[in-house]
Design goal:
The chain is mostly helical. The protein has one domain. The chain contains 14 helices and no strands. Helix 2 runs antiparallel to helix 4.
């Protein structure tokens, strides 16, 4: 069975995972969309406390991205579900290996992240009167999609380790998303942090994408926007490549150590 075919079937399993949480799009909006919008609005309102409409808009943009990254980051949790389903050993020893099935199953959460970010951004931009330069505003979905993709790759990388300790998945996911919210420029500029933190932030997802998005919304230099967006794509690809390598390492280590058996919830 080719890896592409396994990837396709993995995506079908991922769609079933998604449907197990949200049986229809209205249910998704009521259960997840509203939650994400209100979470973003709550943080944006902090700008009102300091009396700055510019800061309201700054937080609005950043947290519209963060809720999408949080949603795409469910790849971390879903990368462990085969351990609970009892199918993980079969995937590890299969001819195609673990990688295509795991990437296929988890990739559905990129779509969840993108739709979450886009919906939250649209609603909050209208609610808080964010100035949108047309027709440039029509390009907003592009950086949102790129950032959700890089956040997915980041979560998949961490999930490749967490699969060995699957019960820690929710705690690790919360910690990873808190790190992104704190250091990538979502809530305060990256330059607020010490130099070594800024260096680390350059290698995190969202950092360069947020710069590109903010520049886009103020009609900044096109070349700078493209450079920052390209850097975001590069960071995402590096994390994805790292995840692909770690998946095999962890699977082989588990097979060698006899720790790929079923893990009960």
């Amino acid at each position: 069975m080719s890896e592409w075919r396994v990837l396709r079937f993995g995506l079908r399993v991922g769609r079933r995972d998604f449907a197990a949480f949200y049986s229809s799009w209205p249910v998704w909006f009521a259960a997840w969309g509203v939650r994400s919008i209100t979470a973003g609005a709550m943080i944006a309102l902090l700008g009102r406390l300091v009396g700055s409409q510019d800061y309201v808009h700054y937080l609005l943009i950043g947290n519209s991205v963060i809720v999408g990254a949080h949603s795409a980051g469910w790849a971390l949790q879903s990368s462990t579900w085969d351990r609970f389903d009892g199918t993980y050993p079969l995937l590890v020893v299969s001819p195609s290996g673990l990688r295509p099935s795991l990437i296929g199953r988890t990739s559905i959460w990129v779509l969840n992240g993108f739709l979450t970010s886009l919906t939250t951004f649209a609603v909050l931009a209208f609610a808080f009167g964010l100035p949108l330069p047309f027709p440039l505003a029509l390009l907003v979905p592009l950086p949102l999609a790129v950032m959700c993709g890089s956040a997915y790759a980041f979560a998949l990388s961490i999930g490749s380790f967490v699969v060995r300790v699957p019960r820690s998945r929710n705690v690790v996911h919360s910690f990873a998303m808190t790190v992104l919210a704190a250091f990538t420029g979502a809530n305060v500029p990256v330059v607020f942090w010490p130099g070594w933190v800024q260096t680390l932030a350059d290698g995190m997802p969202l950092t360069h994408g947020l710069i590109a998005l903010r520049l886009l919304l103020v009609q900044g230099p096109a070349i700078t926007i493209l450079q920052e967006l390209s850097l975001e794509v590069f960071v995402g690809l590096v994390w994805f490549a790292f995840a692909a390598v770690v998946m095999n390492i962890m699977a082989n280590a588990g097979r060698a150590g006899g720790s790929i058996d079923f893990v009960g919830a």
